[in-house]
Amino acid sequence: MKYALLILLLLPGSAGATTYKCVDDSGETVYAEQPCGNNSKVVPYVDDHDISKGMLVLTMDVNHSYRTSGTVNGSPVTFVVDTGASGTVISQRVAMAAGIRSCSTVGYAATANGVVARCTATVSEITFGDFRVRNLVVAVMPNMPQDGLLGMDVLGRLKIQQADHVLSISSN
Fold first, then answer.
1. Where does the pLDDT of residue 97 fall: very low under 50, low under 70, confident under 90, or very high at 90 and above?
2. Mean pLDDT along residues 49-76
3. Which SS3 state, helix, strand or coil, does residue 47 take?
4. Quick one: the chain helix, strand, coil %, rounded to 5?
5. Distance between CA atoms of 19 and 34, rounded to whole angstroms?
6. CB 118 within 8 A of CB 140
7. Sorting pLDDT into bands at 50, 70 and 90, what band is 120?
8. How far is the C-alpha of 150 from the C-alpha of 128, rounded, in Å?
9. pLDDT of amino acid 169
């Protein structure tokens, strides 16, 4: 029974959830999955996970990882390329900076470091290198030390080659 509950908690949230774009009292743009007042504007959900054509070449860093700069809703972020992650993940700090104020589901996720709390939210736009992905459901993890992980939900749509400590990511 407890394993069935854990599996249900690990399921992703609704990919078609409505996202509202609002301007808060301080004039900042925020994104939420609930209306945020009279100035709420629905951000149309378009399943256009098509990724723009491009090429990105990364060199392995001293931690034996591949990292790339990018954005989440226009806010700067450093992503770790993680082919072992099924989905893209961002930290709570990045989510707040990107204007994400609410999640569609709350639960737990099994990671290499154990079971951790997480929630899911729809991000209007993620960019890295020449690539852009819109309306992507991501996991938000409150205690994650990295800004974000690019998972196979994005990387699986691209061609990835690795040789001699160099990772090449290109359009299919």
1. very high
2. 88
3. coil
4. 10, 50, 40
5. 7
6. yes
7. confident
8. 9
9. 94
Closest CA to 117 of 146, 142, 94: 142
pTM of the model: 0.70
Give 35's pLDDT tier (boundaries 50, 70, 90): low
Residue 60 has pLDDT above 70, yes or no: yes
In the DSSP assignment, the letter for residue 100 is: B
Contact 21, 50 (CB under 8 A): no
Among candidate residues 132, 142, 151, the one with its CA nearest the CA of residue 89: 151
Please, where are the H alpha helices in 11-165? 92-97, 152-155
End-to-end CA distance of the chain: 42
Rounded CA-CA distance 27/17 in Å is 25
Check if the beta carbon of residue 100 is closer than 8 Å to that of residue 140. Answer: yes
Higher local confidence (pLDDT), 2 or 28: 28
DSSP 171: E
The tokens describing 122, both together, are: 């729809």
CA-wise closest residue to 139 among 117, 113, 112, 114: 117
